[in-house]
Design goal:
Strand content: 35-45%
Structural class: alpha/beta
Radius of gyration: 19 Å
Order of helices and strands: EEHEHEEEEEEHH
Largest sheet: 6 strands, mixed
Distance between the termini: 33 Å
Helix content: 10-25%
Strand order of the largest sheet: 1-2-3-4-6-5
Number of strands: 9
Shape: globular
Length: 211
């Protein structure tokens, strides 16, 4: 189930708010004590107002949305992201498509924009086919000058999910691709076939985001 939203997470002098929403639950029936935050614009507007009332410096929305296995966001994602940005979100991070989608800034007005990572792809996953066998980690750097908060910069790190047998179990390991490329000797059980898939994922991912 989706996590409840947090509106008062302080880190290094920043008061961060995290909000989580989903388009649905893949057909699962939700009943108490489970709580799911759906993509309800009226409720979200209230949530954002509450965040500001509680003194949030920066509001991050994590959204479960989009079409599975599509490497580009769809019109519904763009429409909902535009609503979030114009209603007060400062960063939008997507999931659900099981593949990486682009990262971009969408305009709020002539002077402001909001960073959107449309989909981070897969984390630990048994999906072994091309573009679904990995994901990205997103890092953002925030600066605070008096009461003004800015997203100074961001970067991403592609990682590939390796699966290999160990006795009677299958082991799943996340390999940061930049670490592998700089020192492949640290990963002695990466086979030639593994490396081929890792490099292909890296090429595909950077192509999706850099373009």
């Amino acid at each position: 189930m989706e996590k409840q939203s947090s509106v008062n997470d302080k880190k290094n002098g920043f008061n961060l708010a995290f909000l989580n929403y989903t388009y649905g639950t893949n057909g699962l029936f939700v009943q108490p004590p489970a709580i799911v935050n759906y993509m309800d614009t009226m409720q979200i507007a209230d949530d954002l107002a509450k965040c500001r009332m509680l003194g949030a410096d920066f509001i991050i929305a994590c959204v479960h949305w989009g079409e599975e296995y599509q490497n580009n966001e769809n019109a519904s994602q763009r429409q909902f992201a535009d609503f979030l940005a114009r209603t007060g979100c400062n960063l939008i991070v997507g999931s659900h498509p099981h593949v990486v989608q682009p990262i971009e800034k969408i305009a709020v007005d002539a002077a402001d924009s909001v960073l959107v990572a449309w989909s981070l792809g897969n984390f630990v996953s048994n999906q072994r086919w091309r573009t679904s066998d990995g994901g990205i980690m997103l890092e953002v750097i925030l600066t605070k000058n008096n009461s003004t908060i800015e997203l100074q910069s961001y970067k991403f790190e592609p990682f590939w999910v390796q699966r290999y047998p160990n006795k009677n179990a299958q082991i799943y390991r996340l390999i940061p691709i930049s670490n592998y490329l700089s020192n492949p000797e640290r990963y002695p059980n990466v086979t030639a076939e593994d490396e081929k898939k890792l490099l292909q994922f890296n090429t595909d991912t950077r192509g999706i985001i850099d373009n």
